[in-house]
Amino acid sequence: MKFAKSHEWIRVEGDPAPGALATIGVSAYAVEALTDLVFMQLPAVGTQVTAGESFGEIESVKAVSDLYAPCSGEVVEVHTELPDNLDLLGSDPYGEGWIIKIKLADPSQLDALMDQAAYDASVSDGPH
Amino acid sequence: MSDTTAISSGAPSGENGATGSEASAGGLLTTPLHAWHRDHGGRLVPFAGWEMPVQYASIVEEHLATRSGCGLFDVSHMGRLAVTGPQSREWLDRMLTRRVADLQPGGVRYTLITDDNGGRGVRILDDALVACEGDDRFALVVNGSNRDRVVAWLQSQLPSEGVTLDDHTRQTAMIAVQGPAAIAIVTSLASPADAERINALKNYRCCTATIAGHSAAVSRTGYTGEDGVELVVAAEDAVAVWEALLAADAAARPCGLGARDTLRLEAGMPLYGHELIEDTNPFAIGLGRGVSLEGRSFPGSEALAAMQEPPAAKQRVGLVLSGKRPAREGSGVYASGGVEPLGIVTSGSFAPSLGVPVAMAMVDSSLAEPGAELEVDIRGSRQRATVSPLPFPGWRQQA
Hints:
The structure holds 2 protein chains of 2 kinds. Chain A has helices spanning about 30-35, 85-90, 115-125, and strands spanning about 1-5, 10, 20-25, 35-40, 50, 55-60, 65-70, 75-80, 100-105. By secondary structure, chain A is of the alpha+beta class. Chain A has one domain (about 1-125): CATH 2.40.50.100. Chain B is of the alpha+beta class. Chain B has 2 domains: about 10-310, Probable tRNA modification gtpase trme, domain 1 (Gyrase A, domain 2); about 315-399, Elongation Factor Tu (Ef-tu), domain 3. Chain B is built from 9 helices and 20 strands. In chain B, the strands form 4 sheets. In chain B, strands 11-12-13-10-4-14 form a 6-stranded mixed sheet. A 6-stranded antiparallel β-barrel of chain B has the order 15-18-17-16-19-20. In chain B, a hairpin with a 4-residue loop joins strand 17 (about 345-350) and strand 18. In chain B, helix 2 (about 60-70) packs across helix 8. The interface between A and B is medium-sized, with 23 and 26 residues. Strand 7 (about 65-70) of chain A pairs antiparallel with strand 1 (about 1-5) of chain B, so a sheet runs across the interface.
């Protein structure tokens, strides 16, 4: 599992080759920091997402945040029950709280992301 | 992921409230409870020139704790001004939109503070509470974001003698104790005689009392829609009083300004910088009660009298949104299927006690009828919204 500075995670199933299936979600730290989630907007299957660009929104009582794609690819599955079960993001952020699955376009984009240890270190000083 | 919409924490135009001379590290002022907030998980954010807790953990939980039990709010960023002297009553009566001439000791009134916009009409500088603490002693509580300009304006209007204006904001702290358990909690820390006086206080009345061994000004007022009081204590007593209130009852919970904003929104209370700005017609937003014109003259009174007569083109309404997505300040409001915006959202959030997103908006009077079906543009997508009376029905829990 790799992490973006903007707190999304991505996990590739099997070898990180072009076309490999990858699951995207948001980190436990981010969910904890947001608190009071009330709304989520997700893309449709078939949407092309681009690394570093918004693919959806998550909204708390106080603020709207964009969700940024850690890697580019085509959305092949969307966790459509998630907006009605936002608690899953907090209770199981790396499992049942997954957001979308994409067909990875360019596996080399993974190299720009952090591993768990680097991400944990990056958030240990508080919010970015 | 990153915030793309900065949602005010109920900060009345927080950016312009910074005060240079008194600023602490980072350019922000801190209240006497600042270290307590920091040490107890308060998320500190810039707010009206101060660093204030927006929440400790969950805004929703803090909101609901206030509706069901008791929320404690550090509102020390509000400006606290003392107006004293033999001419203070007469002078305030000439300065404020509400009558002060007949305000008896122990009375509190909601008022606007206006100037005459350089002779061109009226400008609303702030909304405030004025309390009579004695025949020639008055206290004003003004918004933190407006304190500097209100003080400057009032100073410029002082007569050469007979009135003294002192800004006590930094020497004191203000703690709002709000919710159905608030009075019991406060009185549990007072002598029997003081407890009796606080119990007998009606809304918009004030007294002095000793709370947990410290002198306090006690006002039966607040900004949550709940029963409760606001306490003003000396800065050095703030932590002791705050901790005593928390320890008095498990129902007491520290709350940030995020919950204060959702509580006042549900209760339909306007906030300066949002529902109320310099050129707002107060009669169009339900603040006619804040203006007493009969037989009176104050800065801008003639212009306000002219606003009272014609029906206002825009009115403040409540909106209950369909779906789960909150509308935010600045969202356009449309007639159903309409193309031209006919209104604008002034405050919006998820309403924890109602479980739905709600908003306040200024809309064309033709759309202001309760039950009217409108649409709100939220970041490019239309969402249905129903006009609601204010306060929003159902926000108060059953006793």
